[in-house]
Write a structure and sequence with these properties.
6 helices; Maf protein; about 30% helix; about 210 residues; alpha/beta; about 25% strand
């Protein structure tokens, strides 16, 4: 029995949103989630934080898969920023209510850091994309009703633009896919320019997009 060679692109993320975005764009890949702490350093700026985590995720998986066969590892990290404060994922439903209550009726930024690491030499390329999101005011009952759906519990800022959370959003300036978890246009450009990978070109017989 012949064993198929691994796909040249690895996504260092377990996020179903990132898998869906890449799959719908026609990119083939396999998934090996990175398991690293996602803690902001003291005094670290939000953009630098997102870029560092994306790079650390990609590097950790690139080191894990090794140099042969050569692989390209894509890492990403998305954060929600209100003023200078980074709002992470909620710990529980009550925390989700608190986070979303801070966002409604205001404008915030969503920053995604993206990194691509060559497993052969561990060379890294990266970028970050920022989108501006404006939310309309909402009552406490509306927020609690949304949190009760469970959708917000694994999302930075406690809402999902691609789901029921869109009810709170007035306007997105910039990349909508960035708010969902991966700035698709910028990521595809990075894959093409740095790794020579374009939709369909990473085919090695199958794509893992579970």
């Amino acid at each position: 029995m012949t064993t198929e060679p691994p796909l040249p692109l690895v996504l260092a993320s377990g996020s179903p949103r990132r898998r869906q975005l890449l799959s719908r764009a026609g990119v083939e890949f396999e998934v090996i989630p990175a398991d690293i702490p996602e803690l902001q350093r003291e005094g670290e700026a939000p953009r630098a934080f997102a870029e560092r985590l994306a790079g650390e995720k990609a590097l950790a998986v690139a080191q894990r898969v090794g140099p042969a066969p050569r692989r390209w590892v894509l890492g990403a990290d998305t954060i929600v920023v209100l003023g200078d404060a980074v709002l992470g994922k909620p710990d529980d439903p009550e925390h989700a209510v608190q986070l979303l209550s801070r966002l409604v009726g205001r404008r915030h930024r969503v920053i995604t850091g993206v990194a691509l690491v060559d497993s052969e030499g561990l060379r890294s390329e990266g970028l970050s994309v920022t989108s501006e999101v404006s939310m309309h005011p909402a009552s406490a009952d509306e927020i609690r009703s949304y949190v009760a759906t469970g959708e917000s519990l694994d999302k930075a800022g406690a809402y999902a633009l691609q789901g029921e959370g869109r009810r709170f959003v007035d306007r997105v300036e910039g990349s909508e896919s960035n708010v969902i978890g991966l700035p698709l246009a910028a990521t595809l450009e990075l894959l093409a320019e740095s790794a020579g990978l374009t939709p369909g070109s990473a085919s090695a017989g199958r794509a893992e997009s579970a």
